[in-house]
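TICKET: design request
STATUS: open
ATTACHED STRUCTURE:
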């Protein structure tokens, strides 16, 4: 029986980030649905796992972790011998390789995630839940994201992946929002030669395809 439990839905970008990491690491897990419409994420029991009442929450035996990027780092450090062993820069890469992963993972969280999350809401979730889209917010965040992707394009002209020649957490972290945005406006990514090449490669990884299968599976 799997000792790892992920609380949430694979349709959540943050949850799908953790699932992709678990699949990359070949770590067995159980997915426990959280009905946010019924307020389960604000229940006292759930708040013991995730004090901010957000998904995902993560439990590994008696250890609980929250925030998807921290969970991914935990998985890599807890299970170093399993699955993909280069997600944190590789054991033989030394401090420089690990720092490269950290800085690009930080860039994802600080520079890529804010505009891409705003666009994911406006382009995907707002129509899904019956909210009115905000054209000004879409235009503003597309411009912000374009600037970030221009930086990425220059970087990816120098290396195969963001942190170097190996696929790492720095790349994996972009998959959830990127997947949704490419389905809505692929030119943001594919109009840039190096970003397009990178996106095609990382989104074709078997681990991510398993996540997409979970997202597309019928409910129930």
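STATUS: resolved
RESOLUTION: sequence designed for all positions
ATTACHED SEQUENCE:
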């Amino acid at each position: 029986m799997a000792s790892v439990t992920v609380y949430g839905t694979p349709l959540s970008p943050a949850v799908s980030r953790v699932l992709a990491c678990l699949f990359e690491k070949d770590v067995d897990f159980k997915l426990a649905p959280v009905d946010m419409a019924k307020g389960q994420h604000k229940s006292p029991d759930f708040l013991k796992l995730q004090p901010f009442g957000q998904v995902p929450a993560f439990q590994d035996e008696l250890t609980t972790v929250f925030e998807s990027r921290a969970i991914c780092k935990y998985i890599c450090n807890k299970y170093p011998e399993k699955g993909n062993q280069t997600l944190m820069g590789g054991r033989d890469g030394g401090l420089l390789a690990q720092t490269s992963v950290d800085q690009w993972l930080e860039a994802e969280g600080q520079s890529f995630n804010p505009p891409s999350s705003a666009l994911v809401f406006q382009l995907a979730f707002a129509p899904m839940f019956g909210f009115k889209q905000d054209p000004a917010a879409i235009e503003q965040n597309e411009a912000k994201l374009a600037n970030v992707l221009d930086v990425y394009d220059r970087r990816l002209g120098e290396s195969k992946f963001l942190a170097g020649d190996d696929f790492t957490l720095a790349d994996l972290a972009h998959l959830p929002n990127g997947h949704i945005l490419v389905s809505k406006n692929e030119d943001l990514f594919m109009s840039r030669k190096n970003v397009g090449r990178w996106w095609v490669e990382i989104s074709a990884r078997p681990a991510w395809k398993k996540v997409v299968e979970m997202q597309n599976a019928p409910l129930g």
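CLOSING REMARK: Residues 114 and 141 are 8 Å apart (CA to CA). DSSP finds ten helices and four strands in the chain.
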